[in-house]
Amino acid sequence: MSLNKENQQRLLDLAKSSIQHGLQTGRPLKINLADFPAELTEHRATFVTLQKHHQLRGCIGILEAVRPLAEDIAENA
């Protein structure tokens, strides 16, 4: 699957928002899939990797596609 630049940025922004939300509430950001294009609501497996100053700070994900791409990013971030 190849995403266009707009959808790549949208997922990056989603991950950042979910991390901020998680730090404030202790829970992942809940999203409305209707707010995302169909391409980002297909079931896909994801990994979210965090780096700070080019050093790995964390990585989490799953190898099996069990939920929509945008939701998986929000949950893993």
How would you describe this protein?
The structure is a single chain. This protein is α+β, with helices and mostly antiparallel strands and 77 residues long. The protein has a single domain (5-76), classed as Hypothetical protein ph0010, domain 1 (Glycoprotein, Type 4 Pilin, 2-Layer Sandwich), CATH 3.30.700. It is 38% helix and 17% strand. The chain contains two helices and two strands; from the N terminus they run αββα. The chain has helices at 5-25, 69-76, and strands at residues 47-52, 55-61. A two-stranded antiparallel ribbon has the order 1-2. Strand 1 and strand 2 form a beta hairpin. Helix 1 packs parallel to helix 2. The relative contact order is 0.24. The mean pLDDT is 95.
CATH superfamily: Hypothetical protein ph0010, domain 1
Mean pLDDT: 95
State the domain count: 1
Beta-strand proportion: 15-25%
Which consecutive residue ranges, at least 5 long each, have pLDDT under 50? none
Total beta-strand segments: 2
Radius of gyration: 12 Å
Report the helical percentage. 25-40%
| SSE class | alpha+beta
Output the number of helix runs: 2
Global shape: globular
Question: What labels describe this entry?
Answer:
77 residues; two-stranded antiparallel sheet; 2 helices; globular
Topology:
Layout: H1 5-25, E1 47-52, E2 55-61, H2 69-76
Antiparallel strand pairs: 1-2
